[in-house]
Specification:
Helix content of chain A: 25-40%
Oligomer: heterodimer
Number of helices of chain B: 22
Number of helices of chain A: 6
CATH superfamily of chain A: P-loop containing nucleotide triphosphate hydrolases
Distance between the termini of chain A: 33 Å
CATH architecture of chain A: 3-Layer(aba) Sandwich
Order of helices and strands of chain A: EEEHEEHEHHHEHEEE
Shape of chain B: elongated
Largest sheet of chain B: 6 strands, mixed, barrel
Radius of gyration of chain B: 34 Å
Helix content of chain B: 40-55%
Number of strands of chain B: 22
CATH topology of chain A: Rossmann fold
Distance between the termini of chain B: 37 Å
Strand content of chain A: 25-35%
Chain lengths: 234, 790
């Protein structure tokens, strides 16, 4: 199995005034090519910090992150920007679409700066939004907005897709539609995918489930079989 | 006293937004400073001139005659409304000052020996008044004495009525009559070439054959006297003695310039502060609107806790008051200082012996309340919005902004727009009011810069036209009496003289129907070329007609005549002929309200043989020194006007005063441009920080997101720049129109380089604000932004 990303002994300490918060206390993580990983943990366990660091949004206090042959730790701001631009797709809890751009334009925003992008319309087709290309975010439902965000994330054909609570702001029915889209992308494009959530039900759609607690990966669970997202319920 | 929590919030909000508060504060301060400066200066000049005029008994009426016996003085005193009469001798003569090659012009004015005149008293600055029987004692006006480094005890030589006389300086003085001491034919005061010289009445009367007589009179009127009637009666009394027409104080040259200067200040005090206060009101509204938007949740909470709508409204109003307070502090300090500087500048120019300056309390009160009112008025929408938000609604985030989709975007033309540029264009279109006001603000800054800097262009143009196109002589010589034209040959024989051209100027009343203009007729030779009739509208020389009048357009408009109409003329000299003449030509001039006539026709009208009282000379510069030396000895010369000297003093004065003016305006305009651009970009940043952080997360570089944010401000500025140039042109036209007087008009002339420089300065001011915002963009907290939902 090829390892896409290796993180070792990650610690992250936030200092706010005189208070020190240890968000990560020596976490180790491997992401294998093409797999779908669900990272589970209660709020404050450090899972978002972990995702931010492996996504090149934040830097660890100590430890190392390696993406293929790129050493991310110690890289400067512009190298991290480059990394995000070329290799990572992000999906956020609150979609973070640009309100002044249509669905198609939001996707085009990323494809314009990517090296081997999908056609924006095709990316939206993958998430089932062929009919909504020219709608502005304000004209789309929450689930639709999140699927636009997924299309935007995958349109550049990233090596890694990172989703931080992608269903957090959605009702379960819509959430499942979004998870289906993520599942489909992972299967069809083979994009290494990590989904962060505190919803344990989602774990069953993954190849592996990582449990985060107190700033470390407390346990790893491998599913013999991935359940289709459509069968999930909460 | 413990500060209430809400008030503490106001202070913290102000501190938190200190950059923007300060930027708006600067604009408010500029408006307040401009208002305080102009009103304080105005008040100071008003009080100073009033006190000066009153204390030294500046006359209400002035008149000149050829020669009137002293008994006439009694008759004038009986005119109803006249309180005091002061008769005197006043003549022009050339003065020879050792070490100064060029001849100097002096206006000799008589005063009683050893005592102050009853009117137009002297402010003795050093020494004493001329003594009884001391025929060689003279008092000089102070600026003239200082310009030549002359003090009591020194000697000068004057050619008085054809006789060279050595005069001993016994004192220096100032006079309310000569606050703005302008020599004949000059556009700007020139203290080196024109001076006032006071001598004892008996001495001057004897020198000019005016013993027991006078040739100048000044009156002091009773309160409420009818000035027009007094002038009329005075004219009637003086007419048989060669009166050339009485004028009221308001037309007295020195006073006219002082009052005109104050009038300009008054215009300025209206225009400038208005621009700044309107824009600061809009800026306050913009920032407050944004604050209310970000504090929706807090407003909901406050209301949920039981704060009333008016308490919430008041809370945000206090924020506005805070901004105005900051601006007021800066504005009052700056305005007081600028006011003092400005007043001092005028005091130096006008040589006031007294100066009553204090920062005008009324001005401060007006300035602060007007800016507070305009800022509160400007923010009323935002405050009301905050006050009206129902608590439950306030606590949910606002509905996402709906962007319109326009057909435009589907066109082929729109395809080249990348997504970043689309964001820019859509955001501008989404908030049209704010975009418009940003454009207006920056355009106003550019407009002010153009307005300030075009003065230089316009005055240069005026100088070019007046001194270089309309005049070609090197010197104009005024003669004590009209001389027969054999004088031309006499001048032709002087060393260095290349050409001589006679000219005659006579005082005249020009009337059409009920409208009368008291002015003069300028008689020119039909082949005049040293001082021809020059039309500024066409920039061409107009031939001198054999018969009829060529009028300046301002005079023609005043009289309501055009070519072919007849004008009734009453010549105020010689045999005082009265005749109707047709208007045969109209010319535009920037200076004065001339009426030209053929000199031969004029002499025929006066029933005099060909004569002149002015000659224009072209002089070979290699023989200048010899020529001047000879000139100083000529008995009949009463005035010498050198073109080069007039040019020097004109441009010298411009450089000195215009630079101060430009510097002041430019700083104000920069504060404006910076304040507007900075706030516009900061608010865009605050509204779209999350969006921009998302783009950064998606892999956009700092440069790319800066383009999206600053590109918006940049595009607005790009639109604003040409509009600002147009606005500057409009403002300049307005200002030029307000300077439109009978004495001079300012042509509107703006060089392309002026527009260029204004644009560059405005760009620099906005660029600084962009750099500050860019600095903030570089420190966006990517992680934080993604966690929150707006």
């Amino acid at each position: 199995m090829i390892t896409t990303l290796i993180a070792r002994d990650l610690t992250k300490i936030y200092r706010t005034g005189e208070v020190e918060v240890h968000a990560l206390r020596g976490a180790n993580l491997d992401l294998y090519e093409g797999e779908l990983v669900v990272v589970l943990g209660p709020s404050g366990s450090g899972k978002s910090t972990l995702l931010n660091i492996i996504g090149g949004l934040d830097t660890p206090t100590s430890g190392s992150v390696r993406f293929r042959d790129h050493q991310l730790t110690g890289a400067d701001e512009s190298a991290l920007t480059r990394f995000r631009r070329d290799h990572v797709g992000f999906v956020f809890q609150f979609y973070n679409l640009i309100p002044s751009l249509t669905a198609e334009e939001n996707v085009a925003l990323v494809t314009e700066i990517a090296e081997r992008p999908l056609d924006p319309a095709k990316a939206l087709g993958i998430v089932g939004l062929d009919e909504r290309l020219h709608h502005f975010p304000a004209q789309l439902s929450g689930g639709e907005q999140q699927r636009v965000a997924i299309a935007r994330a995958i349109a550049k054909q990233p090596e890694i897709l990172l989703c931080d609570e992608p269903t957090g702001a959605l009702d379960s029915e819509t959430g499942i539609l979004v998870l289906e889209a993520i599942d489909q992308v992972n299967r069809e494009l083979g994009t290494t995918t990590a989904v962060i959530t505190h919803n344990t039900v989602i774990g069953s759609m993954a190849d592996r489930v990582l449990h985060v607690a107190d700033g470390v990966i407390a346990s790893i669970e491998e599913n013999a079989e991935r359940r289709p997202a459509a069968e999930l319920a909460w | 006293m413990v500060m209430r929590a809400l008030d503490r919030k106001v202070l913290r909000d102000l501190w938190h937004l200190r950059g923007q508060v300060l930027a708006i504060g600067m604009v408010v301060a500029a408006g307040i400073a401009a208002l305080i400066m102009s009103l304080s200066t105005l008040e100071a000049l008003d009080e100073t001139t009033a006190a000066y005029y009153e204390r030294y008994r500046f006359g209400d009426v002035f008149a000149w005659v050829k020669r009137a016996p002293e008994s006439v003085e009694q008759r004038i005193a009986t005119v109803p409304g006249v309180r005091t009469v002061q008769a005197r001798v006043s003549r022009f003569a050339t003065v020879d000052i050792e070490g100064f090659a060029e001849p100097v012009m002096g206006q000799f004015v008589s005063v009683p020996a050893e005592r102050q005149p009853v009117l137009n008293q002297l402010v003795l600055r050093s020494g004493r008044l001329p003594g009884e029987g001391a025929e060689d004692e003279v008092v000089l006006n102070e600026p003239f004495a200082e310009a030549h480094n002359l003090a009591s005890g020194k000697q000068i030589v004057a050619v008085i009525n054809g006789h060279r006389r050595e005069l001993r300086i016994v004192g220096t003085a100032l006079s309310p009559e000569f606050v703005y001491a302008l020599g004949p034919g000059a556009l700007m005061p020139d203290d080196r070439r024109f001076g006032i010289l006071w001598m004892s009445h008996d001495t001057l009367a004897a020198a000019y054959d005016l013993k027991g007589a006078f040739n100048s009179v000044s009156l002091d009127l009773e309160r409420g006297a009818n000035t027009a009637q007094v002038l009329q009666q005075l004219d009637r009394i003086l007419e048989p003695y060669g009166g050339v027409g009485a004028i009221a104080r308001e037309d007295q040259l020195s006073n006219w310039f002082v009052m005109n200067e104050m009038e300009q200040l008054r215009t300025m005090s209206m225009i400038l502060p208005t621009i700044f206060l309107v824009i600061s009101a809009f800026l306050t509204n913009m920032v407050l609107g944004r604050l209310v938007a970000t504090e929706r949740g807090q407003i909901g909470l406050m209301k949920a806790f039981g704060y009333s709508s008016s308490e919430v409204g008041l809370h945000y109003a206090k924020f506005v008051i805070g901004i105005v307070f900051v601006g007021s502090l800066i504005g009052i300090v700056a305005g007081t200082w600028l006011g003092r500087m400005n007043t001092q500048m005028y005091a130096d120019l006008f040589r006031f012996p007294i100066l009553l300056y204090r920062p005008s309390t009324i001005a401060i009160v007006i300035a602060v309340s007007v800016s507070l009112a305009s800022a509160l008025l400007g923010s009323v929408g935002a405050v009301r919005h905050a006050a009206r938000l129902p608590p439950a609604q306030a606590m949910i985030p606002p509905a996402p902004v709906v962007f319109g989709r326009m057909r435009l975007w589907d066109t082929r033309a729109a395809r080249w727009l990348d997504q970043g540029s689309r964001i820019i264009v859509r955001n501008i279109l989404r908030s049209p009011t704010r975009s418009t006001m940003t454009i207006v603000g920056v355009a106003a800054a550019v407009g002010l810069l153009v307005l300030a800097m075009q003065w230089n262009d316009s005055l240069n143009y005026l100088g070019q036209s007046y001194f270089f196109h309309a005049q070609h002589q090197d010197a104009t010589i005024g003669l004590a009496e009209p001389q027969s034209d054999t004088i031309i040959r006499d001048f032709e024989h002087l060393p260095g003289v290349l050409a001589v051209e006679p000219m005659r100027i006579v005082g005249a009343d020009l009337s059409v129907g009920p409208v009368t203009h008291r002015g003069s007729l300028t008689g020119l030779k039909s082949d005049a070329w040293l001082q021809p009739i020059f039309d500024d509208a066409t920039a061409r020389v107009v031939p001198v007609p054999a018969d009829g009048l060529v009028l300046g357009t301002v005079l023609a408009d005043k009289l309501g005549v055009s070519i072919g109409d007849r004008v009734w003329l009453e010549i105020l000299e010689g045999r005082r002929p009265e005749v109707a003449l047709p208007v045969v030509g109209l010319v535009e001039t920037y200076i004065a309200t001339p009426a030209f006539i053929n000199i031969d026709a004029l002499n025929r009208m006066l029933k005099e043989r060909p004569s002149a009282e002015y000659v224009n000379l072209l002089i070979d510069s290699r023989h200048e020194a010899v020529f001047y030396a000879k000139l100083k000895e000529l008995p009949m010369v009463s005035a010498v006007m050198l073109r080069q000297a007039a040019i020097d003093s004109f441009y010298g004065t411009i450089v000195e005063h215009i630079m101060v003016f430009i510097t002041l305006f430019s700083s104000l305009a920069c504060a404006l441009g910076f304040g507007v651009a900075y706030n516009s970009a900061r608010i865009a940043l605050s509204e779209r920080g999350r969006e921009l952080a998302t783009l950064r997360v998606l892999g956009f570089s700092r440069g790319e997101i800066s383009y999206i944010l600053l590109g918006e401000t940049g595009l607005l500025i790009a639109i604003a720049l040409p509009l600002g140039c147009l606005l500057g042109r409009g403002l300049s036209e307005l200002m030029a129109a307000s300077f439109n007087t009978e004495l001079f008009r300012i042509p509107l002339k703006i060089e392309p380089s002026t527009f260029g420089l204004a644009v560059i300065i405005a760009l620099a001011a906005t660029l600084i604000s962009a750099l500050i915002v860019r600095h903030r963009l570089d420190h966006l907290d990517l992680v934080e932004v993604l966690k929150t939902r707006e």
